[in-house]
C-alpha cells in the first residue's frame, strides 16, 4: 500500500497501490500528481 499525507485536510490517505514492493516515488506540487513504480513491473499515477 501507499500512504500519503493530505496537507489540506490534515489526514493520511492509504491507497492499495501495487502487488510488489514500491521502488520509486515522485510527486509534483504543481499538478498534485504522485507517480509510483513497483517491482510488480507497473507504474501508477495518482491525483
Automatic annotation (TrEMBL):
InterPro entries: LEUNIG-like, WD40/YVTN_repeat-like_dom_sf, WD40_repeat_dom_sf, WD40_rpt. The keyword S-adenosyl-L-methionine does not apply. The chain crosses the membrane at residues 20-38. Coiled coil: none annotated. GO terms for molecular function: transcription corepressor activity. The keyword Thylakoid does not apply. SMART domains: WD40. Keywords: Membrane, Transmembrane, Transmembrane helix, WD repeat. WD repeats lie at residues 15-47. PANTHER family: TRANSCRIPTIONAL COREPRESSOR LEUNIG ISOFORM X1, TRANSCRIPTIONAL REGULATOR OF FILAMENTOUS GROWTH FLO8. This is Uncharacterized protein. It comes from Nymphaea colorata.
Amino acid at each position: 500500500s501507499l500512504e500519503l499525507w493530505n496537507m489540506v485536510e490534515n489526514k493520511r490517505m492509504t491507497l492499495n497501490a501495487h502487488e510488489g514492493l514500491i521502488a520509486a516515488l515522485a510527486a509534483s506540487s504543481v499538478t498534485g500528481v504522485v507517480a509510483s513504480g513497483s517491482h510488480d513491473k507497473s507504474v501508477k499515477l495518482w491525483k
